[in-house]
Design a protein that fits this description.
By secondary structure, this protein is an alpha/beta fold. The protein has helices at about 15-30, 40-50, 70-75, 110-120, 155-170, 190, 200-210, 215-220, 245-260, 275-280, 280-285, 290-295, 310-325, 340-355, 375-380, 390-405; strands at about 5-10, 35-40, 55-60, 80-85, 100-105, 145-150, 175-180, 225, 230-235, 265-270, 300-305, 330-340, 365-370. It folds into two domains: about 5-135, Response regulator (Rossmann fold), CATH 3.40.50; about 145-405, P-loop containing nucleotide triphosphate hydrolases (Rossmann fold, 3-Layer(aba) Sandwich), CATH 3.40.50. About 35% of the residues lie in helices and about 15% in strands. The strands form two sheets. The chain has an eight-stranded mixed β-sheet, with helices on both faces. A five-stranded parallel β-sheet has the order 2-1-3-4-5. The longest helix is centred in the last third of the chain and has 18 residues, at about 390-405. The protein is elongated.
């Protein structure tokens, strides 16, 4: 069993002087450090995810790979991130969660001081870091509301999101509301007849990957919708572009929206499946936008259509929201293109209550009935205001849901999860004696 020492990962350019120095000091035993050199960020991530305990990661700022997701990956494994900065990067690494920053010309004493202050030594009996996921992101900005609107294809959920943003803007004031297109198949650019396709959500996430943009910079990444008094954040330009979004950077982007605007209305997909439901991390990453938005939403508007198929799709959406941890008191059901006959509406309301209340589950709020309106395509094309009979009832109902349920959505408590065979173990030299 080896003596206690620091086990340090390193990533830098091949010609970085400090990289060579640390490797030499570790090899000759000048410092109690085992230095593991990485030649790429992929190799670094693979080492962090391997299950072996590490003390710290030394990363050269010049590599350009230090971002929120890399720092978060290290933090969840109790590994301190130390950035080696020669001063040319001009970044505030503490905003990304880095434990410390050292100049490129550090000596052995400076390195040991930093490791002693921020890292743990590895030796006999060291507890392996867990793979427990990080929390669902930073708490929303104080006073900033976040509302998600979802529904199956053809339900009119995107139009409901537009109407809700317009209605909330009437109470919040001009340009205090942003409508964010967070669907994989982004349609809000088409519904607003947007002539530009950039900037959008990809640029917003990239801006937050390695920094914290000011509200003015975030504002410049959105478009003004003049007649409706809100701002628009365009969505993905292609469905496959979801692969470029990383979890912590995306959460930081939503934080940026909430720091900039008083209300965020997110138009999201109804697909919330993750690894726990289907065993696929790829599916969870694909559904990142919807899952993250629902996790922080104070109210979720579930939109459906009348009729057997429309009602079935609405109930399925509501049930999936519940399975994802959304309380029934935070779900507002909306029946779009509802019949004007009051008896028919009452039958829809009763049928929905019977279906969503099956099995003793708590009831949802609503439904709110939105009548069918002719000429909506023309209003979308011209950027004109939607009828107040669509916008006002939605805004009032959402406001009531938030007021009754409380301003801040409860954070779900992490439940025990089954251990995958082969995941429990220790490296031979770190194994505690029997």
């Amino acid at each position: 069993m080896g003596a206690e020492r620091f086990v340090v990962l390193g990533l830098a350019g091949a010609r970085s002087p400090w990289f060579t120095d640390v490797a030499r000091w570790a090899t000759v035993g000048a410092i109690p450090v085992e230095f593991v050199k990485c030649i790429s960020v992929e190799e670094l991530r693979a080492n962090l995810a391997s299950g072996r305990p590490f003390s710290a990661v030394l990363i050269d700022a010049g590599t350009g790979v230090v971002d929120r997701d890399l720092v978060d990956l290290a933090s969840t494994r109790q590994v301190a991130v130390v950035v080696v900065d020669d001063g040319r990067a001009r970044a505030d690494w503490s905003l990304l969660g880095a434990a410390a920053v050292v100049p490129a010309a550090f000596d052995r004493a400076a390195l040991l001081d930093v490791l002693g202050a921020h890292a743990r030594m590895i030796g006999g009996g060291t507890v392996l870091p867990t793979d427990e996921p990080a929390g669902s992101g930073a708490a929303p900005a104080a006073g900033a509301r976040f509302v998600a609107v979802t529904g199956s294809g053809g339900s009119g959920a995107s139009t409901a999101a537009v109407a809700l943003a317009q209605g909330l803007a009437e109470d919040s004031g001009p340009h205090q509301v942003v409508l964010a297109d967070l669907r994989l198949q982004a349609d809000l650019a088409m519904l607003h007849d947007a002539r530009d396709i950039v900037p959008g959500v990809q640029e917003l996430v990239e801006a937050h990957r390695g920094g914290r943009p000011t509200p003015e910079e975030v504002l410049r990444l959105t478009f003004e919708v003049v007649n409706r008094n809100y701002r628009l954040l365009l969505g993905l330009r292609r469905h496959r572009d979801w692969a470029a979004l990383r979890p912590r950077a995306f959460e930081a982007a939503l934080d940026g929206l909430q720091r900039t605007f008083s209300v965020v209305v997110a138009d999201i997909d109804a697909d919330l499946e993750g690894e726990a439901e289907c065993g696929s991390t790829d599916v969870e990453e694909r559904n990142l936008m919807a899952r993250t938005a629902v996790a922080r939403a104070e109210a979720v508007v579930a939109v459906g259509a009348p009729g057997m198929k429309g009602l079935h799709a609405l109930v399925r959406t509501i049930n999936e929201l519940r399975e994802h941890g959304v309380e029934g008191s935070r779900i507002l059901a909306v029946v779009n293109r509802s019949p004007r006959n009051q008896r028919a509406r009452a039958e829809l309301t009763r049928a929905l209550a019977d279906l969503v209340g099956a099995g003793g589950a708590p009831a949802v709020v609503g439904p709110v009935h939105l009548a069918d309106r002719r000429g909506l395509d023309d209003l979308h094309r011209d950027g004109a205001r939607l009828p107040s009979t669509l916008a006002t009832p939605l805004a009032r109902a959402v406001g009531a849901v938030i007021e009754r349920a409380g301003a801040t959505p409860p954070r779900p408590v992490a439940a025990p999860v089954p251990i995958v065979p082969g995941r429990v173990g220790a490296w031979a030299e770190q194994a505690a004696p029997s």
